[in-house]
Design goal:
- This protein has a four-stranded mixed beta sheet.
- A hairpin with a 2-residue loop joins strand 1 and strand 2.
- The model has no long low-confidence stretch (mean pLDDT 67).
- 7% of the residues are buried.
- It is α+β, with helices and mostly antiparallel strands.
- It has one domain.
- The protein contains one helix and four strands, in the order ββαββ.
- The protein starts with a strand and ends with a strand.
- The radius of gyration is 11 Å and the shape is globular.
Length: 59
């Protein structure tokens, strides 16, 4: 099963996404989230939710 990382930023009723990518396993997806935290795209207050191979990031 592929893993998806979706980062969505909400502004009003519109969603702006970035870093769309399909990962072959959960470890790669989690490493991508770590990288996004390191480069400032995600902060510690952002929440990550997992659902059947889909990772959603609430900013």
């Amino acid at each position: 099963m592929n893993m998806f990382v979706i980062a969505a930023k909400s502004e009003g009723k519109y969603l702006y996404g970035y870093h769309p990518h399909i990962y072959s396993n959960r470890k790669q997806a989690e490493n991508a989230l770590k990288t996004m935290r390191k480069n400032g795209k995600l902060t510690e207050r952002d929440k990550v939710y997992g659902l059947d191979g889909l990772l959603l990031v609430a900013l």
